[in-house]
Amino acid sequence: MTPTLVREHLPHAGPALRIDLGARARDWSEIQERMLVPLYEAVYERLEVGAGTRLLGLGCGSGLALLMAASRGAALTGVEARAPERLALARQRLTPEARGTRAGDGRRLVDGSPADAADAGAPAYNLVTAFEPIGCLAGDSAGLGELLAAAMPLAAPGAPVVLAGWGPPERCATSSVLRVATRLAEPLRAAGSWRPALRDDLEEVAQRAGLRLDGSGRVACPFGYAGVDSALKGLLSTGLFDAAISATDQAQVDKEVTEALHPYLRADGTVWMPNVFRYLIARVP
After folding, report:
1. Rounded to a whole number, what is the distance in angstroms from the first to the last CA of the chain?
2. How many helices (H) and strands (E) does the chain have?
3. How far apart are CA 257 and CA 255, in angstroms?
4. Predicted TM-score of the model (pTM)
5. CA angle 165–239–84, rounded 5-degree value
6. How far is CA 249 from CA 93, 136, 158, 186, in A?
7. Cα–Cα distance between 127 and 52 in angstroms, integer?
8. Residue 143 pLDDT
């Protein structure tokens, strides 16, 4: 989950939303994206990401996962087509002085598809990541297959491909908050409402892409916020509540999400929601 927690999915019906995309991208990068750090760390540790790694990050968003790989010595290319505001923040993170598609030695950021990242003179990628978790919106894996199909010709045979997804709803406290989006967006359910993750979501995507399954894991990724206001901004930055806002209004969504957060409000005013995320490792044929 645009890269990071989930794919942004704007509704195809209802009144047009007026969203400050720059502010939303900043909320994502400053509040929400860091919730997935344990997932990134677990994958990089398991695959021994380091100086010999050439990483292709699909849906790289504002670039936190790329930054963590770069700190391990990896050469990397990030691809982002859906959220130029997040990609601009990724450029600032990877090198503040970056211009164009280059973001420094061994680092590239591409506004487009994986095919736009092709470099005939460079070695093939030996790791492909798609860290946007699926299994949260109905149909949220639809575009992932296309991304994988475009990326496979750039990867070396046998290279690992990492997919990420939400864990079982009974182990994800945030599921109860996300159900608010489904209930409020009922008139626009065809536009992509929340649904619980299914056991084989990741495996089905990998198999449709022709990848060979090679292992999986689960990682605790609690969502912790400084307060209710921070939690509200972080969750809304995912785009999961856009259909609900379109079906009702911003004030109604803010009110009901705030109420849904109350069970996770601690005595010191912070918000804490335990969650589990899955990752799947597949291999390029």
Report:
1. 25
2. 10, 9
3. 6
4. 0.88
5. 95
6. 34, 22, 48, 13
7. 10
8. 81
